[in-house]
Amino acid sequence: MTPKRPRGTGAFPKPVEPPAAPKPDPADLYGALDLGTNSCRMLIAQPKGNQFHVVDSFSKTVQLGAGLEATSRLSRASMSRTLQALRICQRKLEQHHVKRMRLVATEACRRARNARDFIRQVRRETGLALEIIQPEEEARLAVVSCAPLVSTRTEQLLVVDIGGGSTELVWIDISSVPRHERPRAIMRLHAGFHPPESPFPAAKVVDWISVPLGVATLKDQFQDVEDDAARFALMSWFFEENLADFSPYSHQQPREGFQIIGTSGTVTTVAASFLNLRRYDRNKVDGLRMTSDQIDRVIREYLILGPEGRRVDPRIGRDRHTLIMSGAAILQALMRIWPTDRLSVADRGLREGLLYAQMCADGVLEDGPF
Question: Is residue 161 a contact partner of residue 139, using CB atoms and an 8 Å limit?
Fold first, then answer.
């Protein structure tokens, strides 16, 4: 007689659902939106220790500044593209119930004659209150975003933010700051390049400049030059000419203790090409240090590829292939004229700076080394 199995044996076990990750408290969330000449980017994040954890993000090429060089106005097509992207941002902010946020626009809106009308249209159609920030604040926020990448051995720091419509450069002296405090001293610049007296050791901003040439505006100025290599050389020379008023340019600085941090799509694309990444990986790119020889080698590869080769190169991407050579011209000029043979790559920028600044002002970041 066949023995009877106890009830339930041999049956498939009931699946155990993993506990869902707790949703972040909306009261802990911060939003940051950067509307640039070429892109619209947003982050939603919550403080975590002395950093932050990204809860949601958005990035879209909108080409808001397309045609701006010729007309000094934002075109209807570019404003329409940008509004579509901003509606997505607005839905994400609502979905996460974000209350604390900073939404900023930069060079294209600083220069366009109809920018104020566009800002009002954005408010009317999306409810988003964009503010146009000045170049000094844009530069300061880019610097703050890079604080975690500052080496404790660095005494002179140059932060370069290559945007779509402008390029910001900030030269900082941190030689008088104790080594372990140097990244945090950079973070404290969120209060201003010349903050009030403080008991903490301070980073000294030696000089800064906002050059009204970014990857989009520089490309537009030389689009009538047909030869690819000649256009690249002219763009690099022209950008260097526009740095003549930047005071550290004429001073001889020692290589030891000098660090350049580059933050932009150009810098991260060059890094991804160097690493031969067919699929972009932020963890491999952010914080990477490249030598000037490695950067030159990648740029030479771009020139050999030519416009058509760059268009289909998966390391560059379809959104960036038309802008990579103007960005590379800026990058090559910077590496040529300053006393270093290394560049620290930062996949971070204005959005991260906006988040750090808000969180620092609210005192929600923990103290301690990065």
Answer: yes
